[in-house]
Amino acid sequence: MVHVIPDITFFVEMVLFLIFMVVMKKVYFDPYLEGMQEREETVEKLLKEAEENNKKAQEILEEVNRILEQVKAETKKVLDESRKETNEIVASILKKAQEDAEREIEDARKEVERVIEIEKKTMDILIRKLAEEIVEKILPKEKAA
Q: Strand runs (DSSP E) across 1-145, as ranges?
């Protein structure tokens, strides 16, 4: 019977490998896995924040659009009121101008009638004087004849 003495190097290598794996786990793998886990948590947190910010941005955008529509409606209302007031002012000015023009035309017509009356009276006086001169010129000839 042959006795085989087992080679102890295999067991030493196994022990050394296990020690190496324990050291590597503590020194390299655990910090690496913690870093990866922290990174995943940070990414998840940032994604949640991004979703919340996106929702807030959507709400703000909807609010801005609603306010913009209100401003457009109010602006249209103000512009319509301004146009209406402007049209009323223009109509009032035109009416006043027309009344002033009619008053001036009436004043001018009265002035023309007054001038015509004066001219008629002047013409009547001139016609009488002419008639008197004609009569004087004709009558003295009759007296001499």
A: none
